[in-house]
Write a structure and sequence with these properties.
Layout: H1 5-71, H2 78-102, E1 111-114, H3 115-130, E2 134-140, E3 145-148, H4 150-166, E4 172-183, E5 193-202, H5 209-212, H6 232-242, E6 246-252, E7 256-264, E8 290-294, H7 298-310, E9 314-318, H8 321-330, E10 337-341, H9 349-359, E11 364-369, E12 387-390, H10 395-406
Parallel strand pairs: 2-4, 8-9, 8-10, 10-11, 11-12
Antiparallel strand pairs: 1-3, 4-5, 5-7, 6-7
Helix pairs in contact: 1-2, 1-7, 2-6, 3-4, 4-6, 8-9
The structure holds adenosine-5'-diphosphate and magnesium ion.
Residues 159, 163-164, 167, 202, 204-207, 211, 215, 220-223, 228-234, 257 line the site of adenosine-5'-diphosphate.
């Protein structure tokens, strides 16, 4: 039968009311999303900043510990204490790296990688991590490539798997899958694009809504003191954002949890793993190398200069880009290598490098950083690949890196 005019009117106003309610709900959802992302952004800036300063302090602690270590006699009982200082500082450095990742300040080396291949590659390790009580299933159904940092992807997967294991103290099933899919960019609007999806599902405790709303915050943990740091998912979140991906979670108390991480698919063939520059591991002395050090943090500058001098380098130091340029203009002495911080108070490291190499063509540049400023053009974007040493580093790392850059020039002359 056909509707009477009254019925039609009624239906139309009901539809209006429903539409309004839905719109209101949608708006509130969007507002909540915005507030949440602003909060995460603010915490990220804070965490990234703290971590950056921390890295400088740790560079000094580790560096001076290594210098003292080098001065002591082999059977000096103090050596053990120095080792403990070093171990503690290295643990602190590992935590700092997680904070940097959350603040999206981790140095990132993206390239075309096949997510499936990376997951397959660390599967044996995952099996060992999860132990006997848990049934492990994996399914890799995608050969698509994405633009990301393979080390970071491994960290993401490892963190999700460790959390899943911890959510299944009485055993259960852990499923890791890689599949083709689609995603809308994390802002939630715009067209869906082809994506590669990493799924990590467990049959563990699950989470209530309240827990679920806070899991990505740094230091949020429901685990006992000493058990959880609350940094795992914060790091995952930062890495996923940094790689233009998105992360979604489905969870219900008592019914398990599924994390779904999507990355935009990128066209092209996965390249080979860049071969790390291998340097002779034991050589801790350099040949007659002349070096310009540019670093604004006085503690790190002093320490680095000392490490370099002890390895046989001639070192001149500058606290900012301008000072370095003036030095080079006024001093005819050759420079083999410039070791510079990426973030300087006046110029960024990339700019400084360009100006220095136009003054002295052929000068090698080595950047130091614990921090790749993701806002603004990253010194790692574009241009030729750069040589980089990450803070905190010790004398051995530094010398090995310099040797790999300078080759024969830096080999110590045998006496
Ligand atoms: P941590 O593992 O150190 O607690 P994370 O950032 O990795 O820190 O995780 C934060 C919190 O999220 C955990 O304490 C836990 O409450 C919750 N969580 C994460 N993954 C799962 C999971 N798979 N199942 C249940 N709860 C989880
Ligand atoms: Mg964790």
């Amino acid at each position: 039968r056909t509707w009477s005019p009254e019925e039609s009117n009624l239906a139309a106003s009901i539809a209006d009311v429903v539409a309004n309610v839905l719109q209101g709900t949608k708006r509130r959802q969007l507002e909540a999303q915005l507030r949440q992302s602003q909060k995460m952004e603010a915490i990220g800036v804070l965490a990234g900043g703290v971590a950056h300063d921390f890295n400088n302090l740790l560079t000094a602690i580790l560096g001076y510990a290594a210098l003292v270590h080098g001065q002591l006699h082999r059977d000096d009982p103090t050596l053990e204490h120095i080792d403990e200082i070093r171990k503690a500082a290295e643990r602190a450095a590992a935590l700092t790296r997680q904070l940097l990742a959350f603040g999206r300040k981790q140095v990132m080396r993206p390239r075309l990688v096949q997510l499936g291949a990376i997951v397959a590659g660390i599967e044996p390790m995952l099996r060992r991590v999860i132990g006997e009580d848990i049934t492990f299933r994996s399914s890799i159904a995608s050969t698509a490539t994405i633009h990301a940092d393979s080390g970071q992807l491994e960290q993401v997967l490892l963190n999700l798997v460790v959390n899943a294991r911890e959510a299944m103290p009485g055993g259960g099933v852990l499923t890791v899958a890689v599949l083709d899919g689609t995603m809308t960019p994390s802002a939630g609007h715009g067209d869906a694009v082809a994506a590669v999806v990493l799924e990590v599902a467990d049959t563990g405790t699950g989470m209530d809504r309240q827990t679920l709303s806070r899991i990505f915050e740094p230091f949020f943990t429901t685990k006992a003191i000493g058990k959880g740091t609350g940094l795992g998912l914060a790091m995952v979140y930062g890495i996923v954002q940094q790689s233009d991906g998105r992360i979604d979670v489905e969870s219900e108390p008592g019914r398990g949890t599924t994390f779904r991480v999507s990355f935009p698919a990128a066209a092209g063939q996965a390249g080979p793993e860049p071969s790390p520059a291998v340097a002779p591991p034991s050589a801790s002395r350099l040949g007659p190398v002349s070096l310009l050090l540019v670093e604004d943090d006085a503690l790190v500058r002093g320490l680095t200069a000392e490490m370099l001098e002890r390895s046989g380098c001639r070192v001149r130091s500058a606290a900012c880009g301008q000072e370095a340029l003036t030095m080079v203009q006024n001093d005819p002495e050759p420079i083999d290598l410039v070791l510079t911080d990426i973030v300087l108070p006046d110029l960024n490291g990339r700019e400084l490098a360009q100006r220095l190499t136009s003054l002295r063509p052929g000068t090698k540049i080595l950047f130091m950083s614990g921090y790749s400023a993701n806002d603004g053009p990253s010194p790692l974007d574009g241009g030729e690949p750069i040589a980089l040493i990450e803070k905190p580093f010790g004398p051995e790392d530094l010398v090995a890196k310099i040797q790999s850059l300078l080759g024969a020039k830096a080999q110590p002359v045998s006496e």
